[in-house]
UniProtKB/TrEMBL annotation:
One of its GO terms (molecular function) is hydrolase activity. It comes from Rhodovarius crocodyli. The lineage of its organism: Bacteria, Pseudomonadati, Pseudomonadota, Alphaproteobacteria, Acetobacterales. It comes from the Bacteria. Residues 30-336 form the Histone deacetylase domain. This is Histone deacetylase family protein.
Length: 345
């Protein structure tokens, strides 16, 4: 399988984010990608850099205002007397009272954020563009005839809406890849196996029938992102029936997850998908600090083997996973499963 990585992504290294009312060190550290890269190299994968694809594939998903904000926010923020080193929104639109689009970066930061988990540093925009470009490259290679390609994206993407960042996500890499695949494939399925619901991805495709979105995640009734990811969310307008959420009880293990995955695979088959994008989050691992699910390393192998059995041209896009000691083996096991190999001893 082709593996794509960019060293530019390491430039994004935020210092803190808000958790339980306190600023704490971020979990999205460069070592996440570094450890995955080392594992895949040891496992015999050749690591490739991506060709530049420009802004068009990204602009096909994200609004011009949002892209301009990401590009200019840090420089504007740093011109504020006494401002912190990173952009951190603290004023947000109130439901039903968002009639205007403000010009000041303080207000724009709140307008384009849905939580306090998206601090923007000096190089965050550059890293997000590099991450998205990897997803485009993986999709481009599949369009050119590869069966599958993996994009080692960081920062992740599935919490990014068309015009909002959040959840350590700025640009929605998986959605960008799915849209790029639409150049050739009439129907694309996007399945999200991250422990958190892919609220940004759902928001992007909620009114569309050409991309089926399926998310398996811990039940949001008491878990991030809290406000969406419920089973009754089925899409709207032309997209009604093309959104499937499969929330799972806390600490669900391999067998419960694989049972839900069968439901997902039946829906993908019934949809007649011609290509597949996988939001490959491994934060559902039993030892991940997010404490959402209890998937084992072999569980990730079995999950990805089942998705490979759909026999679709596939783009795998890295999402979450925050235990530095386990993330590499989780991803390695997942890719081995997709390739039909056993996991390493």
């Amino acid at each position: 399988m082709l593996v794509f990585h960019s060293p530019v992504q390491a430039k994004h290294h935020s210092h803190q984010f808000m958790r339980h009312g306190r600023f704490v060190p971020t979990r999205d550290v460069p070592a996440r990608a570094d450890n995955i890269l080392a594992e895949l190299t040891r496992d015999g994968h050749a690591i490739h850099q991506a060709r530049p694809h420009g802004m068009a594939p990204i602009a096909a998903i994200h609004t011009p205002e949002f892209l301009n904000f990401l590009e200019t926010a840090w420089a504007e923020w740093r011109r504020i007397d006494g401002a912190a080193e990173e952009v951190m929104p603290y004023v947000f639109p109130v439901r039903g009272m968002d009639y205007g689009y403000p010009t000041h970066v303080i207000a724009r930061a709140g307008y384009h954020a849905h939580d306090l988990w998206m601090p923007i540093g000096e190089h965050s925009h550059e890293a997000a563009l590099a991450s998205a470009n990897l997803a485009v490259e993986a999709a481009a290679r599949v369009l050119e005839g590869e069966r599958a390609a993996y994009a080692l994206c960081r920062p992740s993407g599935h919490h990014a809406f068309a015009d909002m960042a959040g959840g350590n996500c700025f640009l929605n890499n998986a959605a960008i890849a799915a849209q790029h695949l639409r150049q050739r494939f009439g129907r694309v399925a996007l399945v999200d196996i991250d422990v958190h619901h892919g609220n940004g991805t759902q928001g992007i495709f909620y009114g569309r029938e050409d991309v089926l979105f399926v998310s398996l995640h811990r039940d949001p009734i008491d878990y991030h992102p809290f406000f969406c990811g419920y089973a009754q969310e089925r899409g709207e307008g032309r997209g009604l029936g093309y959104n499937l959420n499969l929330p799972l009880p806390a600490r669900s293990g391999d067998e419960a997850y694989l049972a839900a995955l069968e439901t997902a695979c039946r829906r993908i088959a019934a949809y007649g998908a011609e290509a597949l994008v996988v939001s490959l989050g491994v934060d559902g691992h039993e030892d991940d600090p997010t404490e959402g699910l209890a998937i084992t390393h072999d569980g990730f192998r079995r999950i990805m083997a089942r998705l490979a059995a759909l026999n679709l041209p596939s783009v795998l896009v890295q999402e979450g996973g925050y235990n530095i000691d386990t993330i590499a083996r989780c991803v390695g096991s997942a890719l081995r499963g997709f390739e039909g190999r056993e996991i390493a001893a």
